[in-house]
Amino acid sequence: PRVKPQAMTPAFPSERLFPLALANGNCPANNGAHLAFRRQFIRYLMNEQTMARCAHTEPILQQALSEVKVAAKATRGDYAGDLPEAVRNYILRAFFWAVFEVDLGQKSSSEYKAAVWSSSALNAVVKQYMLGITSAVKQPELLTLQHLIMCCPPLKDYKVDASLPEGPDKVRFVAQVMPVVFIAALQGIPTLARALLIDKSSLSDAAGSDSAWRKGLPKGFMLPRDREKMRLVVLETCRLNPPVPETVAVLTQRETFEISGVGKRSFPAGTPLLLSYSNTALNEKNYKNATAFDPYGHASSLWGPESIFNGFNGVGDKGDRLCPGRDLSIELLINLLEAVHSATPSSANSFA
Q1: In sequence order, what are the residues at sequence separation of 6 or more whose Cβ sits closer than 8 angstroms to the Cβ of residue 328?
Q2: Between residues 16 and 63, which one has the greater pLDDT?
């Protein structure tokens, strides 16, 4: 369908920070201000230097991962005790260091506290982008993060690109970066981390089998030591437990759909439309044995030139809306998996 995204930015409501990729990988809404923002974002904040800083050998990451290992050893790998907080600390410190080259410092620092505040969906997403509360009252945590990003080393020499129509100046660029951090990074990465680490056998069946089978690695699944294969484990977990299960859009013109059990129905322009990533992920036409956790059997569909995986707003590597932070997110999660399971060699999901 021909769709456009719902606005998700209170600062500049006419601009679309999250335009959608369609099934063919194209993104008709990805133009103008958003296209300029994406190109500047990749140029300054999501580049080779960023990926180098997310290596597990970086001192800041080493320190955070050592805390993860201590917590994992104490709980024998169970996602309990101090492990959730250690995971959150690792993701925050690793993300801010990799992207902004900023060390959040001690947990008592105002920068670290602001990052923790922004990792709450209620604070940074619901109140700010759905209700507009925190923007109106100039929440101090927002001001702290805004200053941190504005002064970060990668943006020291930020320049408006005259070749980009509607290219943002630095103030507007930082205002656009903030919801990307809050909504995509600090909600998506921790959600997927939890899905990778939680033991599905500990979940109550009261919530229904559908919620139980999707969480966690299958009991007894042996993690590979090869990081390339580990990437497939992360992607397969993301397929079965998408951090963003659907996206809301609106039709830009009248469309006719074939609805199972109903037949053809036409809807006018302006009709809200829910695009479900879960439906495509569990469709047998896309993945053989779609409900099974099979990272190696689904390998070609998850990664590479034949990939059809759309969990990062593209179709494989295709689409102008492909998440710029995809590779960074995957690398951070591989680091996390390695740390947890190296600290718990006798766990059900230890290394092969």
Answers
A1: 46, 50, 51, 54, 95, 98, 99
A2: 63
